[in-house]
Write a structure and sequence with these properties.
Helices cover 31% and strands 18% of the residues. The chain is of the alpha+beta class and 188 residues long. Helix 1 crosses helix 4. The C terminus is likely disordered.
Length: 188
Amino acid sequence: MTPRLLERYEKEVLPGLAERLGRTNRLSLPRLKKIIINMGVGTAVTEKKHLEEAVDALKLIAGQKPVVTLARKSIAGFRLREGMSVGCRVTLRGQRMYEFLDRLISLALPRVRDFRGLNPKAFDGHGNYSLGLSEQLVFPELNPDKYTRTQGMNVTLVTSTDSDDEARELLRGFGMPLQADGSTKSGE
């Protein structure tokens, strides 16, 4: 079964982008390549159980097994040695990517406390958008009784375009709740 957001992309978003950008070649239009979800678990240095909980939570959220990330450098002040497990990440492509984005937009983001929209300036200059969630319990897949420890995550949406403006149009077409350009607070 085709994900709902993929159908929307092909039927509504692509024709709208072609009209706004003035292009006829569908392959030159921006598209979503992959979504990377990353959880850094700083307390995993002393408590291995925290990393196991984060891996289980990310597995439920993403629908596939995450990779455990290792420290690249030793930092004595944090009691961190090179090669220690410090987090987990997962890369979503294809149907899982669209299903996750649909759940993020329609279920998780509206559950964020005091949510006023995402910052439209959080692009990296190459058309990729990053956002941070301070709590993994905004996803309804997780049982709040089992996952009592608050754990944040970073979500990066990688697009095929190098232009931030084109990527912003793409995400708005998907229904991403970006703030109006002038309404961001100073200092963000």
